[in-house]
Design goal:
Low-confidence stretches: 382-398
Radius of gyration: 21 Å
Number of helices: 11
Helix content: 10-25%
Mean pLDDT: 92
Number of strands: 23
Shape: globular
Largest sheet: 6 strands, mixed
Strand content: 25-35%
């Protein structure tokens, strides 16, 4: 088989706002370098380095594809093994196959002390068989939503060329749920599912444990071209016990003000928290359930005490709805979506959160379908075009 090697360059990447050239290859990043330097926090740094929503995108007549990568896997000593990062092949808009990169570097973390040990490993080569040799097709390879990856090389049995991006960009901000925790693969996170259904060019700024209304993230959103913006706000602020209600409201206002400085009329959807029983009426901080850990399982509990000004999910939903109601009198392109319409108490009874905090793979599919219906209601048919519809399939977007 005659193979053609193609350098992995930024013009083959979609969904990454930056990239880093290393001695081993190209590392995609979801935030620009200046923003990554604003917060020397391990949780945040790890989350943004996981390329959720990032995909290689090209056209080729190849029937055989090889992608060489060096993953970096995080192992939490004493806890169940995390799933290996998956790579999803999508051909002409249809999911075709999923592969896993074995090996790679490992960072072993002692959960009791936080100490980390780096263990170097070997690269892995993933093969895909899109079929139809000689027939040109659009190829997407979605990169893992849950582990860092260095892209080393791309080889195919026919030449490749960059594939133009979809005409409209959707920028989404949120928590680990938006990043894709517990999704079956990177093309099956709820933002990826909604974007694929609607033909949107996704930029996913979902950061596990780190959707805390950081001002520098608002600046990134302000400065990034987008035809539609959505913000999933609340769960991380509650489960980190990051602020009181008094601090929360101006933080939301300031986040929106900054975004509006760069996107004064872009449709902007504020999404309140999805249902999470442990935090509906009990504040954070959240913590690992010690009983579950003793049994070798991971579950989360809420450890805070209710009180005046404390944030719970019910408090956050009410506050967000009021902020959007007040601002929308002068901002007609600002909308509010109750997260309970995406995943509510009835959904929890049907599809419980496996760890008490994150939806499972089937829930991501349900949420993605509903989210797609909701954002299509506020998305203009052409970039820069105004909107009229605010009600679709039962979703009332205030």
């Amino acid at each position: 088989m005659s193979m053609t090697a193609t350098p992995i360059t930024p013009d083959l990447l979609r969904g990454a706002l930056d990239h880093e050239h290393t001695s081993g290859g190209l590392v995609p990043h979801r935030l620009p370098a200046w923003a990554r330097e604003r917060l020397p926090d391990v949780q945040f740094s790890v989350a943004q380095a996981h390329p959720s929503g990032v995909r290689l995108m090209f056209r080729t007549a190849a029937a055989h594809i090889e992608l060489a990568v060096l993953p970096t896997k995080r192992v939490y000593l004493g806890l169940p093994a995390r799933p290996d990062g998956a790579y999803d092949l999508v051909v002409d808009g249809e999911f075709r196959e999923r592969a896993v990169a074995i090996g790679g570097d490992t960072i072993a973390i002692d959960v009791s002390t936080g100490a980390e040990e780096f263990r170097p490993g070997s690269p892995s080569t993933i093969t895909f068989e899109p079929g139809d040799m000689g027939v040109e097709k659009s190829i997407q390879i979605w990169l893992p939503h849950n582990e860092r990856v260095t892209l080393i090389g791309l080889s195919t049995d026919a030449p490749v060329e960059p594939d133009p991006a979809p005409p409209k960009t959707w920028l989404h901000y949120g928590s680990s749920i938006s990043q894709g925790s517990n999704a079956s693969g990177p093309s099956a996170t709820f933002p990826a599912l909604a974007a694929s259904t609607l033909g949107l060019d996704l930029v996913n700024l979902g950061f596990a444990g780190s959707a805390l209304l950081d001002p520098f993230v608002a600046r990134v959103i302000r400065d990034t071209a987008a035809d539609l913006i959505s913000l999933e706000i609340g769960i991380n602020l509650v489960n980190t016990d990051a602020m009181s209600l008094r601090a929360f409201i101006p933080a939301v206002e300031g986040f929106l003000d900054t975004i509006r400085d760069g996107h004064p009329t872009t449709p902007l959807l504020v999404v309140s928290p999805l249902y999470c029983a442990i935090h509906e009426y009990i504040p954070g901080p959240g913590a690992f359930d010690p009983v579950a850990l003793a049994a070798g399982e991971v579950r989360f509990i809420a450890t805070g005490k209710p009180g005046a000004g404390k944030l719970t999910l019910t408090v956050v939903r009410s506050a967000l709805a009021e902020v959007v109601r007040r601002r929308s009198t002068t901002d007609p392109n600002l909308y509010y979506l109750d997260g309970l319409d995406l995943y509510g108490e009835d959904d929890f009874a049907d599809l419980p959160l496996p760890d008490g905090l994150h939806p499972d793979a089937e829930s991501h599919l349900r949420i993605g379908t509903r989210f797609g219906a909701a954002i299509s209601a506020i998305s203009p048919s052409e970039p820069g075009e105004g909107i009229d519809a605010v009600v679709l399939n039962g979703f009332k977007l205030h």
